[in-house]
Amino acid sequence: MFTVAKPSSPPAIPRDLFAAIADLKQELNAIVLAHYYQEPDIQDIADYIGDSLGLSRQAAETDAEVIVFAGVHFMAETAKILNPHKLVLLPDLEAGCSLADSCPPAEFAQFKAAHPDHIVISYINCTAEIKAMSDIICTSSNAVKIVQQIPADQPIIFAPDKNLGRYVMEQTGRDLLLWQGSCIVHETFSEKRIIDLKVQNPTAEIIAHPECETPVLSHADFIGSTTALLKYTQTSASDTFIVATEPGIIHQMQKDCPSKTYIPAPSTSNCACNECPYMRLNTLEKLYLAMKHKTPEIILPEATSIAALKPIQRMLEMS
Ligand code: 13P
Ligand code: SF4
Question: How far is Cα 198 from Cα 308, in angstroms, rounded to an integer?
């Protein structure tokens, strides 16, 4: 005699997810923070959409009891470090980041130990463990400004993004010791195909995120964080842009200036590799379920969280 396990029924998803999420926001006293690379529906229900710096500022300032973070793990982790006693939800815990993964804590600890006279400035796209080993955190919108504030004779390790690091070296004239990490999305853009697009659209401006490689950046009319790219499309006299960053941001560009044309920069092959596979793991359904069941939540060891808070606070003070 044996029993057959009943197949578990899929979770009930309301028909009007927008209304259901709005109700849950009220019920939980929750704020939804979303990065520009999230799918359009998530951007549209968010209370705040921004780049990593803007999202960190919002997380530091909010008085909501629950933070629902529609972004990737390191971003939600930063919100948790800033709010250790609040519930921070991430719709899909697998939403990681190739750049954060390119800097394993044990190897980085050895690298740091080999250069004891250096201070460590880490790009926010890193794990809480790397933040805990850093002196200052930066984002793509304040990296140049932060490095410029460090005395000229102070050696600096810059981690984990070698492309952003190289860009900061060019902008500041400083010699940085670079950790050799990178982002799979921003390294996928094809310089040749971007030039072909420019030839076909001669009035278009090329705008790029500093995580792109130097050959792509060398063709850019403007380089900046996601927020800076968005602002640039609003203020530039140009009406066409070749956008060398994750194409999720084009949703806001179209909403803000619908009469302009935005062409996603192509990747080296005909794949959708310019879409961040981690950001795209979050969906509106998963966001609803996370709020409904108050899980999955970000949990961090207390010692790591305390050690990681200081360099984030320094960034917020310096930017
Ligand atoms: P921003 O801080 O410019 O939004 O960049 C975050 C990111 O992950 C880019 O890939
Ligand atoms: Fe990380 Fe790159 Fe995705 Fe940004 S686009 S979250 S750096 S993998």
Answer: 43
